[in-house]
Amino acid sequence: MEKSVNNAITIDSVSMEYQTAGGTKRVLHDVSYQVSEGHFVSIVGPSGVGKTTLLRLLTGLATPTNGSIAVRGQELHGPPQGMAVVLQDYTRSLMPWLTVAKNIALPLKRSGLSKSEVAERVMSSLEEVGLSGSGRSYPWQLSGGMQQRVSIARAIASRPSILVMDEPFASVDAQTRFDLEDLVLKVRADFDITTLMVTHDIDEAVYLSDEIVVLRGSPAEVREVVSINIPFPRSQVASRNDPQFAHLRTRVYALVRGLE
Closest by alpha carbon to 40, among 240, 246, 181? Predict the structure, then answer.
């Protein structure tokens, strides 16, 4: 597959296997996909299919057994510059002994920014996620949804061009989840960030994405890439009531369950 610089990420014939006590475990096989600049792409599939393994490869935290991954034409050999990550468990990713502001400032320590520039970046990131005035609080003083907003603020503080999220809303209630989905769409629009997300929630994937990559099999392969043609901007009411939303949700569900 051509490693075009017109794509933010190029996944080229990637396979991944591990050596276990019982032998070789093959997780991914010949996975290829190109993430276009500025797109929001969700990765879905059955539990244990290898979604998080693929995400680890995309962030440079692991190296594929075969194939390659390139970010803007440069093959990955470790975590790339310009990429930020939001994890599911904010209680582990945020430092409870640091204030919200200091948590957000962590990725800026080696940025070369002055103290005043770091302070401005922290303030603007808090404002972006709707937490202005919370900088002096500690994470444990905030609700779960607010803590995940802090995680998102920290991710965007370095002004990344690529945002990777692993089940980012799985630990919050349904209403907070909807609010965070809309926040992510706002951040994407405001900063023009290319976004990849692993999720088990098919409705969420349809609501947020330009494209959904469906993984199936053992080892996992790309079963299908589903284009989401629901217009932007999206609304929790109007978009989810669009007949096309129900059609796409049903199609992706059938692909995940192996009914197609």
Answer: 181
